[in-house]
Structures are given as structure tokens and as C-alpha cells.
Amino acid sequence: MPLSPLEHDRRYGELDQVIRAYVGQLADDTPDEPSEALTAYLRHTWHTRPWALAVAERQLREYAEHPPGRLRLKLGEFYVIPDIGLPEEDVQRWLHTLADHIRSSVEEGRVPPPAPPSTHWEWHARFPELGQFLGGWFSQDMPDEFADHHQAVADYRSATDPQVVAHLVGEVHELLALDLDESGYASAVAELGMEVDAPAPYTPGAWLSHVADLLAQPLAEYGPPRAEQE
Q1: Judgement on whether residues 149 and 198 belong to the same structural domain of the protein
Q2: What share of the chain is helix, strand, coil (3-state, %, to 5)?
Q3: Which of 108, 141, 156 is the last residue of a domain?
Q4: Domain ranges, residue 61
Q5: Of residues 176, 170, 162, 171, the one with CA closest to residue 209
Q6: Is residue 118, in this structure, part of any structural domain at all?
Q7: 140 CB contacts (<8 Å, ≥6 apart)?
């Protein structure tokens, strides 16, 4: 029978996080150098969940040493590694390479220094609520759903728990603290799911700052929810 969510996470949860870090990235790790994807995973995990690195190392090594047979895969009793662009016969060696890099990072205290996210996975791991906000309220359908950007922000505010809104404001300030240039902020919001331009006359960075200011206001000062205005 298929794995339960609890059993899946206990046996493969952190392995899955590592593999997800490779979406859209090359699995070009070598014994001497981790890939950009693994470096992004290490950087984010060191600074948010350092204890998970030991779990990742163990799960990667156990999976490499005990790969699933066809029957267990068919029954859904095993985690299936998606296609990462490597020949099947190279996957086991690659998993051992990842485990070795993670182990040496922990044992030698080699922590990637703070830096802007470098992969799609890292952008969303570091700014999860901002990704929900931009991808959910500012997709290409936004002009059909809202009169303007301000109304979309108001709708998010009225539909979202205040604690989550506060978390979003914190993520926006963290993104602005990266001190990117405007092309960098344009790339950042695109990575996080925004599919429309910032409203005139704002640049992407200036608009993010404006959104943070709006959402930091008490709800009574910001204005009534969209439904009440209609």
C-alpha cells in the first residue's frame, strides 16, 4: 500500500527537500564541488534548520544503499526520485556525492555565506508567503479579477490572517534588505510568481516597499475589504 504522509516524511522528507532544490537546475555535483542547487540548499538550511542537514545526509545515504525494487515502486511504497537529467546508473553515485558534501559541510563547519537566493527553489524556500502573495494575487489573471494593484492588495489583506500578513511584511523587508538593483528586484518578483508589471510610476523595488507600508497599516486605516466597497 502507498506510504502514509507520516511514514513518507519520516523516511524521505528531507531527501525530498534536497531533490526539490534541483528543479530547473543541473545535477552537476562532483566529489570536489557541490552544484549551485546543493549550495543553495545548504545555505538556506544552515540558516533556518541546521539540524535537518544530518537528517538529509542519512536519508540520502540510506536511499543510495537500498534503492527500491520495481514492485515496491509499483505499490507506491517507496519515494520515487524524479528525472534529474542523469542516467539511471549514475543516480546512486550522485546521491552518495550529495551525502558526502552535506556531511563534510557539517563536520567541517563550512557554511555558505548569506547571499541572495540563486535558484527558484531557494527563492520560494526563503520567501514562502511572498511567493503565495505574488503568485496568487498578481498572476496574469490579475487584471481580470481586480480593478488595479491596490484592490488586489486590499483583497489579500481582507482574506488573510493578520499574523500571516505581518509575516509577509517581514519577508518584503528582508527582500529589500538584499539591496538589489531594479533588474534584480524585477527578477525576484518574477521568480516568486508575479506575472504583471508593477503599477506606474513604481519600479518593482519601490512597489514592494509601498506594499509593505500599506500592509503594515492597521486594517481600519487601510480601508474596508473589497466586498464592502462594492
Answers
A1: yes
A2: 65, 0, 35
A3: 108
A4: 5-108
A5: 176
A6: no
A7: 195, 196
Q: Is the residue at 121 inside a domain? A: no
Q: What are the pLDDT tens digits along the chain (230 aa)?
A: 566 778 778 888 999 999 999 999 999 999 999 999 999 999 999 999 999 999 999 999 999 998 776 645 555 556 778 888 999 889 999 999 999 999 999 999 999 999 999 999 999 999 999 999 999 999 999 999 999 999 999 999 999 999 999 999 999 999 999 999 999 999 999 999 999 999 999 999 999 999 999 999 877 655 544 443 44
Residues 6+ apart with CB under 8 A from 76: 1, 2, 3
Residue type, 81: I
pTM: 0.87
Question: Which of 108, 143, 166 is a domain's end point?
Answer: 108
